Amino acid sequence: MRVEVIRSVTLKLLLGFSLKADWKPVPLIWSAQRLVALLALTEQPPSRACVAGTLWPETTEARANANLRSSLWRVQRACGRLVIALPQRLVLAPEVTVDVHSAITGAHRMLDSADPCEDILGVEMMSLLSGDVLPDWYEDDWVVMHRERYHHLRLHALEAMCARLSAARRYGEAVQAGLAAVSAEPLRESAHQALVSVHLAQGNRFEATRQYESCRRLLHSELGLEPSAALRALLPNEITGRVGAVGGARVVAESGPVPASPVYAQPGA
User: Fold this and answer.
1) What does the alpha-carbon distance between residue 65 and residue 248 come to, in Å, rounded to a whole number?
2) Contacts made by residues 19-26, CB under 8 angstroms, sequence distance 24+
């Protein structure tokens, strides 16, 4: 019997679950997908008992272990080079390429000021940092925890990428990185600040002012706050004052008087 040799296995968890062997899709049922995702997101190889208890917390230990054996059998049948089953632990095969692993490594490099990151300052890394981990999976707390951790990491990395690209005068790409950060968290002022800085570095005062106004309106409508001092300081006082006055007049005209907002101290102030 001829045995098919699999040369590469690729697992994608960003923006959704996808498994391919030699670029061919590998179908897995839901329980098998959860098992593979958990192993991919766990930093240290977990014990079989930990995996069973995490994936099936509401069943008995015996039933959870039975479910694990069934799911593991299905994974091995679909792609034998995906999971290594040790006597007490389960681990994803080291040759499996996982997109979120590459994204996390790139994000940490982007945040390391001693690393020039020239080899990852491009569209591929920006694409990896622009998506969250399994965004449609909400039933498992462990997925939500990993997604939240990665979400914050990628936001910091996108802002750092924006600054690095701007410093390299690659303004078009810098704007894209800034927009990706703003899109991921519209109320994050540091993302708007990074984008305003790029526009100013390029000499586009109109774009910088428009981005500032967009942030100001969003903060006011959603939180009743004004932009931070750090964000306001990027633009001349006459611009931020005029934008605030025009925006305030528009709000008053449309919805009546606006109550005074409390002053919130900035962290580290």
Assistant:
1) 61
2) 19/79, 19/82, 21/79, 21/81, 26/78, 26/79
The Cα 16–Cα 237 span in angstroms is 45
The pTM score is: 0.85
Which residues is 97 bridged to in the sheet? 10
Backbone angles phi, psi at 74, to 5 degrees: -65, -40
Q: Can you read off the two tokens belonging to residue 224?
A: 């009743």
DSSP state of 44: S
Q: How far apart are CA 17 and CA 27, in angstroms?
A: 10
Considering only CA atoms, which of 111, 116, 51 is closest in space to residue 85?
51
- In three-state secondary structure terms, 174 is helix
Q: Would you state the CATH architecture of domain 9-95?
A: Orthogonal Bundle (1.10)
Task: Give whole-number Cα distances, 61 to 50, 56, 58, 125, 141, in Å.
Answer: 11, 9, 9, 41, 19
Closest CA to 155 of 192, 118, 121: 192
How confident is the model over 22-66, as pLDDT tens digits?
Answer: 889 999 999 999 999 999 999 899 999 999 999 999 999 999 999
Longest dimension (CA), the chain: 81
Residue ranges of the chain that CATH labels 1.10.10.10 = 9-95
